[in-house]
Structure formats: C-alpha cells, structure tokens
Write a structure and sequence with these properties.
Elements (H helix, E strand, L loop, with lengths): L6 E3 L3 E4 L4 E6 L2 E6 L2 E7 L5 E4 L5 E2 L1 H10 L2 E4 L9 E3 L8 H10 L3 H28 L5 H30 L37 H27 L17 H23 L18 H7 L3 H14 L14 H17 L1 E4 L2 E4 H16 L13
Parallel strand pairs: 2-6, 3-7, 6-8
Antiparallel strand pairs: 1-2, 3-4, 4-5, 8-9, 10-11
Helix pairs in contact: 3-4, 3-5, 3-8, 4-5, 6-7, 6-8, 6-9, 6-10, 8-9
Amino acid sequence: MTPSLTSIQPLQTLIVEDFGAHVGKHSERLRVTVKGELKVEAPLLYLRQVIVKARGVSISSDAILACAERGIALHFVSGVSAQSGASLYTAGLTGTVLTRRAQLLAYTDGRALSIAGAIASAKINNQASLLLYHARSRKTSAPKLAAELRLLAHEVLDHDAELDDLLARARTAKPSDTNNTPDAHDTTNTTDSNDTGDARPAPRPAVVYPIDRYRNALLSIEGRAAQKYWAGVKLLLPAELGWEGRRTRHARDPFNSALNYGYAILSRQIEQALVLAGLDPFAGFLHADRPGKPSLTFDLIEEFRQAVVDRTVIGMVGKNMPLTLREDGLLDDDSRRSIAEKVIERIEQSAERYEGKRRTLREIIQTQARHMATFLRGDRANYTGFVAR
C-alpha cells in the first residue's frame, strides 16, 4: 500500500484528500481506494462526518445512503473561503418546521437583535480573551509584549461597553424612534409619484425591523474592536512572516490563507450544528440576507473563530510549523492537511469551561445551536453567546 493523504482523525472524522479517490461502502465500513488500491477503511459505527477536500473524488450511492441512515454528514470543502463548498445531510434532520417557522418570524421582532447583540458581544470578549491568554503566557518571558497585549485587550473590551450601551438604547427605543436610530440613514423611504406635478406626499417610511435599524451600528462596533484585536495578533507573529494585516478574500500570504482555510473547515461544523438543531443556515440576523449566503452560519461562527481557528493557527506559527504557498498563491496540500487536522483536533478534543463543566468545543458548538433554537421557539428566556475562559 502506497502512502495516502486520506486519514481518519480522532473522534470519528474521515478526511479524504487523495485526488481521484473513490469512497465506497464495504460491509459496515467506508472504504477509500485510489485506482483500486485500498487507502483506508472507516467503521460507520463510529463516524460522525466525512470531509472531502480533494478534487476528483467519487462516492458511491451505497456510501451516501449509509451515511444518511446513520446521520453522518458529508462535507465538501474547497478551501478558498468559508462560503465555498457544500454539505449533505439526511433529509430527516432538516424536517423541523416549528423551529424554522420561529426563526423566520424572529427577524421581525426583538429576538433577532438579541441574538445579533449576544453574538457580537461574545466575539469581542473572545478576542480580548485570546490576547489576555497570550499576555499571561509572556508575563515573565516578554513583559513589555505582555503589557501591550493587555492594553489592546482592554481597548477591545471598551467596544463591548459601547455595544452594551447601544443594545440598552435599542431595548427602550419606541417604534417612532426609527429615524433617530444609528442606521436611520439606511431606511429605504419611498415616495409616491404624482402625475399632476402637485406637492408630493410626505415620505412613507418603509417597514424597518429592529435588527435592520441597528445592524450597521453593531457591525461598526465589531469592526473597530477587530482592528485592535488584529493589531494584537500581529504582535504575536514573527517579524520575518511580514504579516501586513487581516485579509479575507484573495489573500495570498500564508497566515491569512491559513486563517481562511481554518474558517472554511469550521464553517462546515457550524452549519452541521445548526441543521441538527433544526435551524436554517441561510436565515441569519447579524449578517444580512443575500442569495446563496449562509448568514446564520456566518452569525454563529463569530462565537468560535478565536477559540477554534485563531488560537490554532497562531499556535502553529509559534511552533514554526510550515505554512507554504504554491506558485498560484494558494496553500499547498501539506499545509492544508496540517490545518484541517489541527482544527478538527481542537474541536473534538479541547475542552473549555461551559455551563459549569468542561465540555469539548464540538459539544459547545452543538449546544449553542440548540440554545438558539429553543430561544427562538420561546422555550428559553434569552440567548447568551459563548465566551472561552
């Protein structure tokens, strides 16, 4: 048997990344072969998900049905961004009408703003928490750097206080306050045409829901906090890396590319958790609707970027693990494999304090999605974002 890129990760994740691989079902196992040569077998009993990263991979209908019957998700990751790729779930998992009806109706009332505010607050606190984590580890070895990191962490938290003030004003605002809200300039007032040339009627305000009124203000606060956070992250990176700052799309440097690839892996885990909780990944609150955009996935992922991906990639750079780009500016196969393995390992094996217990990040992601669903259905009084401690 020749060496294979395909592997079984800890706790039931099969990653297929051999070009031209075939995934078939053999007895109670998934069998991965390349040109007829066996590469790996994974028992269906223990599998939680299959992540396909390579191109040219084929999967038999028997393998797909076996995964569907056992609730095993199939993820296809392109690695370019969190938005690219696809996932396949059994239809039985998505047939939760009551939850989806509540999710769509929540957009029109204060529940959408509550969730968006909780997510933004969690993200800001996680950014500060990660900077403080690295400050503590450098308290003795690099006291000046530790002090800079603490200062930036507190500046990040200043924006959480700003967010609290915005949400407090939003909760007490009256519907007539629409034109005085931070996003009032975004309201799309309409005017009736008048063929006679007489004075036009007063502008008729369009329907503007609470989340629409405050979304830009929320994103503005979040964006300014992120500037301080990434300034702190830059201090943690070796100068020879030459990192110039955070780039999302079209990044052509190793650190940004590694972050983007890690987010793409994480986004599939978030989407899976939302679907299992009965939620529609495309109907979000903090992120605006757009065709083909999984807005709710983009919402919930904000609570976990720092704890899952940022901490992992910063750690890889700190340990001088190679992140290499190909001639076309994309990460090479070895770098992608390392990032995927580390991110999955972090999700499945790292435990965080959560609701009074130590829980894996996998459990926390799924629980947060279920908390969101129960809040939307009215079975839970509030929704609180996850903050790593």
